[in-house]
Each structure stands twice: as C-alpha cells, then as structure tokens.
Amino acid sequence: MSLKKLLAITLLAMSTSLSALASDVVVPVDPVIEGQEVPAKGLYFSSSFEFELSSEVEDVLQRGITLYFVIEVEVEKKRWYWFDRSICGIKETIRLSFNPLTRSYRVAIGGMTQSFSSLEGALRFIKTINNLYVGSYRNLNPEDYEARARFYLDTSKLPRPFQVTLKKDDGWNLNSGWFDAEIKGAGEK
C-alpha cells in the first residue's frame, strides 16, 4: 500500500471519528468478549464508550427525568450452510437519575445502585463497562464465532410528553449502532 493511500485512509478515519463525536454518536473503544474462570466461569464483555450529553438531554435529566441507557451483546456461531446460530447474549439497562433535593446523581445497573456528586462522575461510570456477564463459558475459536454489541439511549422509556416533542437532531440520538467485538479465550491476551 502506498504512503498516500495510507495517509488518506488515516485522515478519513480521523474525520469520521470526529464527526461521529460531534453528531451525538456513541463511539466504542476496544470492545472485547473474553472467556474467564474468575469471578465465575463464563463469557464477559468489556468496553468503554465515548459520548457527550447534549444540553437538551442534560436539561431533562436536571428536571428529575430518568435516562435509560441500554447495552446489548450477542455471540453467534458462523455457519456457511444456514443462518448463524445464537450462542448467548444479554441486554442490560443502565438507569441515570438526578435527585434535585440531594443534588446527587444515581446510576442503577441490575440490582446495584451507586450515587455520585457530579454528572461527570456518573457518566464516567456509565461509559466504562467491565466484565459484563454475557453467557456460560465456552472455549471459543474466534474464527468460528462472532460477537457484536451496541450501546444506546432508550428514548422509548421517557415520559410520553417528551417522546411526542422529541427531535432526533436535538442530541437524543445517542447510539453506537451494532459494532463487532473481539473474542478472546480464557488466558489469552
């Protein structure tokens, strides 16, 4: 590959990622599914995400309306003779809320709840997903399996008056779309 071609591809990738950040798109960083023995035998998803809340979304949060973020992960076995077979998957909802009386933010994932004094701290916690249990442990050959995931703000869980007046170009389109995640076996680095 020539140096000019490589430079053009690099510039295109950089401009795409910068425009993605500017248009409220969620950008995944190093998504991976790994087979682990600890804390419990299984497949675990880890990634971090880059996004910013628009002023409209922050305003709704400051009014006491809960925001719902969703992380979905799927692992499938590739088959050339038929449709791909689903091996395992998970859909986890992350709730972000603000309490005007205590001036604190709460993040709830599954049965765990944590409080934060600032929005930045709460978002930093939401943006980093570590060891999310996806399914039972299998020795996966990365050539035979593929994994994909997505992270998005679920606007369907907002109160109905907000859904009616919602405009996707007002910063409510926080969505990574489906992206591929690397698969690693237990002990692989």
From TrEMBL:
Residues of the signal peptide: 1-22
Pfam families, per database record: DUF4390
Top-level taxon of origin: Bacteria
Protein's UniProt keywords contain Signal: yes
Keywords: Signal
Name of protein: DUF4390 domain-containing protein
Upper classification of the organism: Bacteria, Pseudomonadati, Pseudomonadota, Betaproteobacteria, Burkholderiales
